[in-house]
Amino acid sequence: MNNRTGSVVFTNVKKQFGSFTAIHDLSLDIEPGTLVTLLGPSGCGKTTTLRMLAGLEHPTSGRILIGGKDVTMLPANERDVSMVFQSYALFPHMSVLENVAYGLESSGMKKSEARQRAEEGLTQVGLAGYGQRLPAELSGGQQQRVAVARALVLEPQVLLLDEPLSNLDARLRRRVRTEIRELQQRLGFTAVYVTHDQEEALAVSDRIIVMQDGVIAQQGSPRELYEAPASSFIADFIGEANVVPCEVLGNDGTEAIIRVARLEHRVPARSARPGPARIAVRPNAITLEAAEEAAFPGSIRHAAYLGDHVEYEVETEAGTLFVVDPAIDRNLAPATNVSIGFHHRGIAIINN
Amino acid sequence: MERSDRRLNIALGIGLAGLVLVPWYRIEAGFYGLSWLKNFPTGSAEAPGILQAFEFGRWNLALIALIFAVAIAARFLRVSALRSNLLIAAGGAGILFLVWQGLAIGYTGWSWTINETLFGPLADGQPSMGAGAGLTALALVLFFAFGLAERGVLRGDAFVVASITLLVFLVAIFVFYPVGSMFVGAFQSFDGSFDPSGFVRNIQDPSIWSLDCLVGGNRCGIAWRTFFLAVLTASGSTILGLCFALVATRTRFPFKKGLRLLTILPIITPPFVIGLALILLFGRAGVVTQQISHIFGVEPGRWLYGLTGIWIAQVLSFTPISFLVLIGVVEGVSPSMEEASQTLRADRWRTFWRISLPLMKPGLANAFLIGFIESMADFGNPLVLGGSHGVLSTEIFFAVVGSQNDPSRAAVLAIILLVFTLSAFLAQRLWLAGKSFATVTGKADSGAHIALPRSLSIGVHAIVIPWALFTLVVYGMILVGGFVRTWGLDNTLTFEHYQRAFSFAFENGAIAWTGVAWNSFWTTMEIALISAPLTAAVGLLTAYLIVRQRFFGRSVFEFALMMSFAIPGTVIGISYVMAYNLPPLEMTGTALILIACFVFRNMPVGVRGGVAAMSQLDKSLDEASLTLRATSFRTIRKVILPLLRPAIVAALVYSFVRAITSISAVIFLVSAQYNMATSYIVGLVENGEYGVAVAYSSMLIVVMIVIITGFQLLVGERRLRRENRVATAFVPAAVPQEKATP
Ligand SMILES: Nc1ncnc2c1ncn2[C@@H]1O[C@H](COP(=O)(O)OP(=O)(O)O)[C@@H](O)[C@H]1O
Ligand SMILES: [Mg+2]
């Protein structure tokens, strides 16, 4: 239904609220037909970025291009984007069909045609036959789909979604995010998706842009971010990670040898230079063996049994490590001395 | 065509119409009479602006036409910084010049001598601005706004920018210009030249400022008397209001619903009606006076006519308002505070004095200030009861209409009155702001309010019950009074007064309205019906701008609007008379001036109601509409207004009712052609025709009750038809609360 999918470019965009700078010098480039996530902790400026794209805020300086056209000064209602709001913002006094047809009628389409297109849009999201209900008569998940349909029937160059799942319960979230992703891939539109949930971001995105305090901390594919975090912030934010100081002993171009305590280990090189450095170690990349003597010794401080795995906090000379161990039968008691090892995967050298 | 071009075309169309299609100047016989068509466009009085400029050699209009041409040229540029700057410059300069030339060139030439010395004498003056000037001004304001919008101001939203600019322009013309004229008027002599002597003489007048009542035993000056009266009225109505509120919320009083009905009374009661009823009770020929003199053989006294009488009437009038404010305050004290106090071994008495009452203090202060402002602004009761012992508001009136005819004195008195009320308003806004301990909605807190201590409970009942009965008697008087032939002298029942006021006959198949009241009654209805929707529209639009838009100077904008409500009606009346009697704007004696007065006086209430209702609407609803390609205008029409329906109804009802009941400003502005019910009734009172006056008043009250219930039913119906959570949330915000704070 959509073949006008567009790119998005921000060049040196800055946004101030009074004296407070919410966005510092943001530049980004989003390819047509991709789903890009803006990810970051609460207050980092994701919504502000999205709202500038929608035209609901205007940048203090910089330029915004949609589909190659400069829209920096264009008001929201003249931009070729549409948005799914966190609260859905369905008009409570209009039926579902009127809601979906609203944008089409605003653009000047004849009422009968708008209604028909709205019906089609509802069918797209699996809500055929719900048109005459009021939004309050739908479940949360259905309301969410109406909001998506309402945005999509306009065939925007870019679809914006601001934390679209945050009002759904945990079970529904997983299903709806899959639906959104499938819809996006089927129809091939460009989507900018805001979330603070890293798992959600990993699950749906072609690319992830991680923001921190109004600047981009890192961008890349989900896999790049997970496997090669650029900073300890990213490492900890995308999946949990233990950041451990280490010594880089050598680097042969593909692999580097590092040493933590007296334990030596091989990891992907990532242009590490010899000398002190840090590694990000995923909680499930750490092995524990009960042992009195070890190259990298530790002592169990706390253990929590969680059904399919056990979580440990382990005291070591490199700090407290958080470990996820699938071997539930072993259940190491607190104060047990252990020897710590690393799996091959799940460790990344942090360059800065 | 781009939206930016389309809207500019509209503005250009309006401006061209203003310059070419209608007379530039005011038509003496009235624009809507269309008599001007006969001599249009060549008559010197009827010519449009473009001919006035080039046929009749008015260089000032030629300059405006030139500025307009710049805007036309800009229209054909592509959207660019140059184009928007040209529009801003043309619009801004055009408006400024239009205003300047209007003020500077009067009927006979230059208004100020400084221009004469600078530019030399003018051959010809000019009359007041008319339709053409108005349309052109509108177009210039729009150019300015659209230029700003193209520059990206307010996210490029032309509707919002244009609304703000227009509102500021209108408020400047209809609030600040008249009040400013009044200040200027204080320093002018009759012919308009600068003459401070009147001001100096009046401001030092001992009859205004003397404090003899404190030291010498004589009467105090009028300013002080008004001030003391206001303090006493405010104290009385606050204390009574608190008692009523306590009874209504903290006791098991059986008639609480009835008490709450009291709060509607001040809205539907024309302000002098209480005074009128008091006269029927306690005046020289009043029922009570007659009975007492009959039984005890004392001579009927005139004690009612003076400050005592005014005070009683005002306390009766304003206690319901204070009650309404204080119900919220008393309910707002969190029950958990009181419960906490009780678990800390405090008894009910101690809890009330140490916890509940201190928590209500800011609310009490607020109620006091409201009572103070209302008393200061009250015109009807002092007019009916004051006689020669007037207060500032009536004295202002007599300074212009009476034999004195001293506009300078009126202006000085108005300034003094304004200073009093504005000080109280500022105290309310600045000092009390943020001091409220009460939770605004009273929600979320579980637990029940504790009952009053026994002795206190007895005390408040002892006050409330007699006063409520007294109020009932007073209102009963109003209803009964119209059916009694001559109070005190001949108490037989009769329809005579109603017949005199409202008789009609069928003649030749048509209804002939033969009653004396019909003329003013229909005028009142007409003016109220025209001004109510305008008031509601302007008020709600303003509310939308204040709640939903962040723009430079927003808080100043809001403050100025709210302040205009603290300007007493008498001051508005006198300033309208002073401002709109001479060029550049002449409106006295027209319906337009009454409508403008109502719209800008009652608008703040619409603003307040709209702000309250709109704050409950999720902002993302408007934003969703915007991202769905709707303009702000469409958003308001399709999304916001339908959700605000109850607030709209409340604003409509309120402004309608206020237009019917108000007297203070109106009495200055009525004319033979447009006489309003209230001023007509006051005339009847002055002639001693109490029977007809009371009959007419009760008729008005009944009409308003019918209208209010009608509207309430409509709102209720809507709620039944659609189970709409958003809508029902607003319903409690309907009529009564509106008068809560001035
Ligand atoms: N209208 C506003 N006025 C002032 N500050 C704002 C406004 N909108 C957002 N901010 C601030 O900008 C920062 C980024 O906000 P936002 O983009 O909403 O963050 P998030 O990443 O959680 O969506 C926050 O610190 C927020 O307080
Ligand atoms: Mg956010």
Question: How would you characterize the overall build of this protein?
Answer:
Chain B: Its main location: membrane. Chain B: Keywords: Membrane, Transmembrane, Transmembrane helix, Transport. Chain B: One of its GO terms (cellular component) is plasma membrane. Chain B: It holds the Pfam family BPD_transp_1. The complex is a heterodimer of chains A (352) and B (742). Chain A is α+β, with helices and mostly antiparallel strands and 352 residues long. Chain A contains eight helices and 20 strands. Chain A has helices at 46-54, 96-106, 111-124, 140-152, 170-187, 198-204, 222-227, 232-237; strands at residues 8-17, 20-30, 35-39, 61-66, 69-70, 81-84, 158-162, 190-195, 207-212, 215-220, 242-251, 255-260, 263-268, 275-281, 286-290, 297-305, 310-316, 319-325, 337-342, 347-350. Chain A has a six-stranded mixed beta sheet, with helices on both faces. Chain A has a five-stranded antiparallel beta sheet with strand order 13-12-11-14-20. Chain A has a five-stranded antiparallel beta sheet with strand order 15-19-16-17-18, with no helix packed on it. The longest helix of chain A is centred in the middle third of the chain and has 18 residues, at 170-187. Chain A starts with 7 loop residues before the first strand and ends with a strand. The model of chain A has no long low-confidence stretch (mean pLDDT 89). Chain B folds into three domains: 2-151, no CATH class; 208-439 and 452-475, MetI-like (MetI-like fold); 520-677 and 705-741, MetI-like (MetI-like fold), CATH 1.10.3720. Chain B has helices spanning 3-21, 49-54, 59-75, 81-104, 113-119, 131-150, 158-186, 197-203, 206-209, 212-215, 222-250, 256-261, 265-268, 273-282, 287-296, 307-332, 335-343, 348-377, 380-385, 392-401, 407-431, 454-481, 496-502, 518-548, 554-565, 569-579, 591-615, 619-627, 632-643, 645-661, 666-669, 677-686, 690-721, 725-730; strands at residues 105-106, 109-110, 484-486, 490-493, 505-507, 510-512. In chain B, strands 1-2 form a two-stranded antiparallel sheet. A two-stranded antiparallel sheet of chain B has the order 3-4. The longest helix of chain B is centred in the last third of the chain and has 32 residues, at 690-721. Chain B is globular, with a radius of gyration of 28 Å. The complex binds adenosine-5'-diphosphate and magnesium ion. Residues 46-47 of chain A line the site of magnesium ion (MG). Residues 17, 20, 22, 40, 42-48 of chain A line the site of adenosine-5'-diphosphate.
